[in-house]
Write a structure and sequence with these properties.
Helix content is about 15%, strand content about 35%. The protein is mostly beta strands. Among the domains are: about 200 residues, no CATH class; about 55 residues, no CATH class. Strand 34 and strand 35 form a beta hairpin. It is elongated, with a radius of gyration of 34 Å.
């Protein structure tokens, strides 16, 4: 026997209603209860209160709702009000969060280097010992900022003042970098959820916020005779690509290069020392200490109006200090660049201009404060005053002289002279160091001139052909680290990578996209009465409509039925545009502020 339904809706101070409807959707935007009631005294209408909807058998309650607007309708003789009431997600707009987590380790470790004082004296700077390198695969983040995606979700929920939450769908083994500066916590949680193919869901039945994987959730209630008034099973097949291609940051290759001296000439070009337009009378090998030129006659072929002082200034800036990479090691092709990718294979031959030097390796170490930082590149070779005690270094020993990197010219510049003096020779002669540089580099594709990036392709069920959807995730930082036989033997021993970690990270991102293309049959059903259904990863929308004589529940699985509400993707785009406008306004304000400084 069908149940006898007694529809009713209550809210503190609400006049007798005629009809009402409320739709609960996925996401953090507040849902709106629209109530039509006879015009009357609204002085008792409370700004915040609890909504109760019942059919006389079942009840759905909405806590801490807020009146948004009151809209008068009709004529003076038959006036009605439409009262719009927001569910309690309206509070989330006023719950900020700040914090910077999973911070990369971009700072260069303060390795002991040899500096130069204003008087030309050599100084020892930094710590006096070698750093203790991390024994595990080099982590990419500072330890004290480490928060898993799940931990970040907990922070968001707490900032939202939520005490009941279920965010187990967020992974505990992924550590995305976030930098929240007075952001809306709910928006931050939504962006975090979407990274992993999830959506934020609000469950008013138990007053709980959750994160659910898209497409996963409960089935719609079984059909019962007399309960269902309408029933529709739609079908909207997606058009999936054959693959999801997840692209990461440009690959970093840590390897060694032989370098040659390339000082700068007056025309701005870097040349072999013998090709410089300025040459000392006795030749560069005779310059053992500081470069000393006391008159124009000390210079061969001094051109134009330049004097020995011009030569002296440029020589001290660049002679024995500017080096350019000449070939990769091991030297598969003399003067060529073939980056080792494993113990037996090298990448295709690259041009010099395809190599982008970086100032640091892929290794990390802790400083005296416990901070984990990336270790800078290293120099090896014979060099006078190259050790910490300002003694000569031998072949294969690290040269503890600081240097900077010019990525565009594939060059380094020492903070002082990097040279070798043969004092056993007669006369004594000085040469540029046979310099070995070990650092990380990016490489450009020889044909497209684009950076070679990490890429992993994942098949999409139902996809056909060779189509693929590219997804760029700069936080996937793939590297190759070449371990050589020794500091003097430059043959490849092993090559380490973080392939496993990067592939796992890429899979999370790919699964999030694949979920959007997974073939799911949409369902929309309308029941007679109040049904306590809530949204999850599969049930995307639930509506309750109630009048004095009827009450209905409409629920949709894998689709949305309320055409008055923009689809989820549109709601997210509008939210993103709003955030972009806020950020743009903030930048404008900062720029105006800087412009007004004296």
């Amino acid at each position: 026997m069908p149940e006898v339904l007694v529809p009713n809706l209550t809210y503190p101070g609400l006049p007798p209603f005629q009809e009402a409807s409320y739709t609960l959707s996925q996401g953090v935007q507040a849902g709106t209860l629209s109530v039509t009631c006879q015009a009357g005294d609204l002085s008792q209408l409370q700004a915040v209160g609890r909504v109760m909807m019942t059919d006389g058998v079942r009840v759905v309650g909405l806590n801490r709702c807020r009146v948004d607007r009151v809209i008068p309708n009709g004529s003076t003789t038959n006036a009605t009000y439409t009262i719009l009431i927001l569910d309690r997600r309206w509070e989330w707009r006023y719950r900020p969060i700040s914090g910077h987590y999973n911070i990369p380790a971009p700072r260069v470790y303060d390795l002991p280097k040899v500096g130069v004082s204003a008087l030309g004296q050599q100084l020892q700077t930094g710590n006096q010992g070698q750093p203790a390198l991390d024994e595990d695969s080099p982590p990419q983040i500072q330890e004290w900022t480490r928060k898993s995606a799940y931990d970040l979700g907990v922070l968001c929920c707490r900032a939202m003042r939520e005490t009941k939450y279920d965010i187990r769908a967020l992974p505990r083994d992924q550590y995305p970098e976030v930098n929240w500066e007075a952001e809306i916590a709910a928006e931050a949680l939504e962006r975090l959820a979407e990274l992993y193919g999830c959506r934020v869901v609000f469950n008013p039945l138990v007053d709980q916020v959750g994160v659910a994987r898209l497409g996963e959730g409960a089935n719609l209630p079984d059909l019962q005779p007399g309960d269902v008034m309408e029933f529709s099973d739609g079908f909207d097949p997606p058009e999936p690509p054959a693959f999801i291609a997840v692209y990461g940051a440009p690959i970093r290759y840590q390897c060694r290069f032989r370098c040659v001296a390339r000082p700068k000439d007056f025309d701005g070009r870097h040349k072999p020392m013998a090709d410089l337009s300025y040459q000392p009378f006795l030749g560069w090998p005779a310059q053992h200490g500081p470069i000393i030129l006391s008159s124009n006659t000390d210079i061969l072929n001094l051109a134009g109006e330049r004097t020995f002082r011009d030569v002296l200034a440029l020589a001290n800036e660049t002679i024995y200090r500017d080096y350019q990479i000449y070939e990769s090691l091991p030297a598969v092709i003399p003067g060529g660049f073939r980056i080792p990718v494993n113990s037996t294979t090298s990448a295709d031959n690259k041009r010099l201009t395809d190599i982008i030097l970086t100032p640091f390796t892929v290794e990390t170490a802790r400083d005296d404060l416990g901070q984990r930082n990336q270790v800078p590149g290293r120099l090896y070779g014979k060099a006078e005053r190259g050790s910490l005690t300002c003694q000569p270094t031998a072949e294969g020993e690290e040269i503890r002289i600081g240097f900077t990197v010019d990525a565009e010219k594939q060059m380094i510049r020492g903070s002082q002279f990097i040279r070798y003096t043969d004092r056993a020779a007669s006369p004594v002669v000085t040469y540029p160091t046979d310099l070995i540089l070990e650092t990380a580099v990016n490489v450009l594709d020889r044909e497209t001139h684009a950076a070679v990036r990490y890429v992993k392709r994942f098949p999409v069920p139902g996809g056909t052909g060779d189509t693929e959807l590219p997804i760029l995730r700069e936080d996937i930082k793939f590297y190759h680290r070449v371990n050589y036989v020794s500091t003097t033997e430059h043959e490849v021993n092993t090559v380490e990578t973080n392939q496993t970690q990067c592939d796992a990270q890429a899979k999370y991102y790919a699964d999030a996209e694949i979920a959007k293309f997974t073939l799911q049959q949409p369902q929309t059903r309308t029941y007679s009465g109040i049904y306590p259904i809530t949204v999850d990863g599969a049930i995307q929308q639930v509506s309750w409509s109630i009048s004095t004589s009827a009450v209905r529940t409409t629920a949709s699985r894998n689709t949305e039925h309320d055409e008055k509400i923009p689809p989820y993707n549109q709601r997210r785009r509008e939210s993103s545009l709003s955030l972009e406008r806020m950020a743009r306004n903030e930048r404008t304000i900062r720029e105006l502020g800087r412009g007004g400084e004296s």
